[in-house]
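Weekly modeling sync, notes
Attendees: S.R. (lead), two postdocs, one rotation student

Agenda item 3: backlog of single-chain predictions. S.R. asked that every request posted to the team notebook include the full sequence so nobody has to chase files. The rotation student volunteered to paste the first one in as an example of the format we agreed on. Action items at the bottom.

Example entry:
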Amino acid sequence: MTETAAAPVFTTGLPYGLPEFEAITHADFAPAFAEAIAAHDREIVKIAMAAEPPSFENTIVALERSGRALNRVSAVFFNLVSTDGTPAMLDLEETVSAQLAAHDDAITLNSQLFSRIDAVYQQREGLNLDAESRWLIERVHLEFRRSGAGLDQTAATRLRAINEELSRLGARFGTYLLDETRDLGVLVTDEAELVGLGAADRAAAREAAAQAGHPDGWLIDLVLPTGHPWLAKLHDRPTRQRVYEASSARGRRGGAHDTRALALRIATLRAERASLLGFDSHAAYVLADETAGSPQAVQRLLSQLTCPAVANAQAEADALQELIDDEDEPFALRPWDWDLYTERRRQREHDIDSERLTEWFELERVLFDGVFWAAERLYDVHLHERHDLHGYHPDVRVFEVWRAGQGIGLFLFDPYARATKRGGAWMSSFVDQSRLLGEQAVVVNVLNLPKPGPGEPTLLSIDEVTTLFHEFGHGLHGLLSDVTYPRFSGTNVPRDFVELPSQFNETWAFNPEVLAHCAINVHTGEPLPAELIERLREAKAFNQGHDTLEYLQATVIDLAWHSLSAAQAAELRAQAGDDLVDAPAVAEQFEHDALQRAGLLFSNIAPRYRTSYFQHVFAGGYSAGYYSYIWSEVLDADAERWFAEHGGLNREAGEHYLETLLRRGGSQDPKLTYVQFRGHEAQIEPLLERRGLTA
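Predicted structure, as returned to the notebook:
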C-alpha cells in the first residue's frame, strides 16, 4: 500500500483485501491517517509538477491511481466508527473529518494540478479514448470546478475554512444524535406495559436493558426515524406515547446535545459555500449534478404527490378514528396511536396479522432462501459463508460471492443493534471494484435488528424483510460492478440514482415465488398460505397516504434548509442571536413554516425525520438529496413494470438488467443507463399506481 506502512489497517493479505480486523486497534488510526495523507500529498505533487506535457495517462489516470492508502484507512475507519462508535473513535472522527476536508481542498484548489487537468479536458475529443475514459475526463474536470478550482485566493481561503468547519459540525451532529438515541431509550419496569410484544421482542428488550445496567427491566431502544416498529404492537397507550415522544425529542431537549444550533450553522455555511461557487443555494448546487437537474424539477415531482397523499392520509385517519370510537373508552387519535390501529384495520380489511406474520420470516431463512436465492435466480450469484474469515464484531458474518464459477468479492452482514452502532440500515464498502487497480468489491450491509435472547429466532416484520432486500440491492450494485475506474465503481452514482437498485430489489421481497421458497413458519414448518400471499399483494397500497406524507414532510424540511440563499441563511442566523442561543426556537419555527407552505402540516403524522435528528442531511451524504428516494422510486416502479412485461423473476430478464444497469456503476450518464435498460425514460404512472395515489 505504501513503502513504509506498518499499521495493520494497511495490511491486505486476506482474500479480496478484507481488512485484518482482529489485528486493528483504535490506536492505529491516527498515525495511519497521518501516513496516508502524507503519501497522497507526495503523489499529488508528483502529478502536478511533472515535467512531461499533461496527458490522459500521466494526469487523469494517475489521479485515479493515487491515494490508495488513504482510501484504505478511510474505508476501514468510517465503517468502524459507524458500527462501533466508542467515545475515542467519535472524538477522532471529528478531528479526522477536518483533516480530510483540508486535504481534499489542497488537491482541488491546487492551481498547477487543475491546469494540467484542464489541458487534458480541452484536448479530450482528439485522444481516441473509449467512452468510459472520456466520461472520466469530463467528470474529473467538472468535480474540480464544482470544488472551487479557479476561485481567487480570497474565495479559496474562505472555501477551505467552510469545508473544514462543515466536516467538524457534521461529525458532531452524528455524535450528538448517537448519544441522544442511546440516552432516550425507554426503560420499562412493569411487564404489563409490554402487552402486545411477542416473546422475541421482550427478550430483546430484556437483553438491551441488561446491557444498559438495568437487569430487572426492559429497554426499548430507539430507531433512526420518528416512528418505532413496536408502536404497532404495544397495547399500553402511555407506553406508546413515551416511545414516540422520546424519539421525537432527540436533539430538541436543550442542553449539551441539542442539535438545532448545529443544523442552523451547517445550513448557513452550505448556503455561503454555494454562493462562493456561483449557485443560488446549496440545493441548486447539489441538484445541478444530479439526474433531477434543479430544485424546480424536484418540486414538480413533489407537487404531483402532495394532494393525493394528503387526501389519502386524511381518509386513513378518519378510518382509524372510527375504530377508536367503537372502543369502550374512545379517545382522539394521536401520532403514537396510528401504527397500532393501522394494524387492527389491516387485520379487519385484509385479514393480515402483522405480528403473527413474523413467524414466517425468520432471518436466516429469509436471508438464504429469499434474498440470496432471488439473486441466484436473476444474476447467477451464489454466496458461501467463509467461517475462516472474520468481521469487525462477533455478530458480523463474511460470505464469498461467486458468479459464473469465479469469486467476485466478499459480502459482510452485520444485522443486530448495539449501543455503539448508529441507527438505521445502510450499505458501505471496504474495497471498491475496479479493473484499473485489479480490485474486487468487499461490501457490508448493516442493520439494527433487536437481538433476540439466547436460543431465540430472529423474526422479521414486513418492514424489516423489505429493508433486508433493500440493502442487499445496494450490495449487488457494488458486488456486480464492472468498471475500469474506481471513481465509477458500483454505488458511486448520483444520489437520486443510487437508490434505484436497492428499491428495485425490494420488488422480490413479496414476490410469490420468493415467498414460497423462504416464508416458512418457524414453529410449524408450514409455508405461508397462498391466500395470505395474495392478501399481502392486495394490501400493497395500504397506509400509503401516511407513508408518503411522512416522507414528503422530511423531504420538504431538507429542501427548505438547503434552498436558502446566502443572504436568507445569514438573516436566519442573525435571528438566532449571539452564540445561537435562540437557534432552537428559530429552527422549530422554520420547520413549521416550511411544512405549512407545502400544505403538509398534519396533526397525526409527523415527518419521518425532523431537523434535530435528520442524520441523512446534517451528518450524512444526503443534504438537498432526501428527495432521491422518491425520485428513484419512479425509476424502480417503472423497472418493476418492465420485469412484469418480461416474465418476472427469470435469468434472461435479470441478465439484461445486470448488463445494462448494475454493471455500469457511474461510468456513463445515468439517464443514458436507464434508457439503455428500459428503452425509454421512466414514467411516473407505475409509482402512482403502486402507492394508490391515482385517485
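Discussion: group reviewed the output briefly. The CA atoms of residues 551 and 608 lie 6 Å apart.
Action items: rotation student to repeat for the remaining queue; S.R. to check formatting next week.
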